[in-house]
Write a structure and sequence with these properties.
Elements: H1 21-27, H2 36-44, E1 46-51, E2 67-72, E3 74-80, E4 86-93, E5 97-98, H3 100-105, E6 112-115, E7 119-124, H4 126-135, H5 137-163, H6 166-177, E8 189-190, H7 194-201, H8 205-217, E9 221-224, E10 227-230, H9 233-237
The chain binds a DNA duplex through helix 8.
DNA sequence: ACATTAAATTCGA
DNA sequence: TCGAATTTAATGT
């Protein structure tokens, strides 16, 4: 049953109370650049929720169209075709905030968001987001940097998708999950299995497994059970070129 | 696709 | 609550 969403409204810890200033600083690196009054406003408009592995994250059920951050855990963004075949576009690890496009344009989500493991999410309601976008210079600075970084991310993706073969492609895919601009504060370890890495980089699990071992032999990553540790991010980024 | 190994869960004391 | 037994998940080929 592809794309099956978790029971709506069954989440135990949704609250409408907002989040403390200290908590905001912890879950949103961008907030550190905001002046006090703007940060307070941001904190008041954010709510957190936890999703179990495999759950479909549907903010429409709770807060209509909110801007979304990954606090801990890992999610993937993709679609599932009518036949049930799912396509993964990108993963977002802890520290990543996304969805500003749909919030700004106020349109329905076009992609499925699925938790790859137990994941804590933060949602900023649309009025708060729009207020920051219209009033905060610092927040706009962040948005521009983030959008620019993502544009670069997808340009690179287009380029290497057609030029490189499996191992370098996987290398860049992993490196993108450790992008310090998009996903600040991430460590060097990511809990993700090889099947998901395969889906993320568009290859079978078998090929992903072979490529991963090649990367490990070259000393750029270390394989763990159910996860991966990056040893040399710079080399991973430019692997094979 | 299958065999192996790691981890999570259950169950009995 | 401890640890052995069983089941499930991830990996390696």
């Amino acid at each position: 049953m592809p794309g099956a969403c978790a029971v709506p409204g069954a989440e135990p810890d949704a609250s409408r109370a907002g989040v403390s200033r200290a908590r905001l600083a912890h879950i949103a690196a961008w907030s550190l650049a905001l002046p006090e009054d703007e940060a307070a406003r941001a904190a008041a408009g954010i709510v957190e929720r936890t999703y179990p592995r495999g759950a479909c994250i549907c903010p429409r059920n709770t807060v209509l169209e909110s801007w979304t951050g990954v606090v801990t855990g890992l999610i993937k963004i993709g679609t599932v075709s009518r036949e049930g075949r799912s396509v993964t576009f990108t993963g977002v690890p802890a520290g990543g905030w996304f969805g500003e496009g749909t919030v700004l344009k106020n349109e329905a989500r076009r992609y499925d968001i699925v938790a790859l493991r137990s994941t804590r999410m933060a949602f900023m309601d649309r009025p708060t987001f729009m207020w920051l976008a219209e009033n905060s210079v610092a927040f706009n600075g962040f948005l521009v940097r983030q959008l620019n970084e993502r544009l670069g991310h997808f340009m690179a993706l287009l380029e290497y998708d057609r030029l490189l073969d499996a191992t370098p492609r996987l290398a860049r895919c992993i490196a993108s999950l450790f992008n310090p601009v998009l996903y600040p504060g991430a460590g060097d370890y990511l809990e993700i299995n090889q099947e998901e890495l395969g889906l993320l980089s568009g290859m079978t699990r078998q090929v992903a497994n072979q490529s991963l071992k090649a990367l490990q032999k070259d000393g750029v990553v270390r394989l763990e059970y159910g996860g991966i540790t990056v040893i040399d991010l710079e080399r991973l980024r430019s692997y094979g070129s």
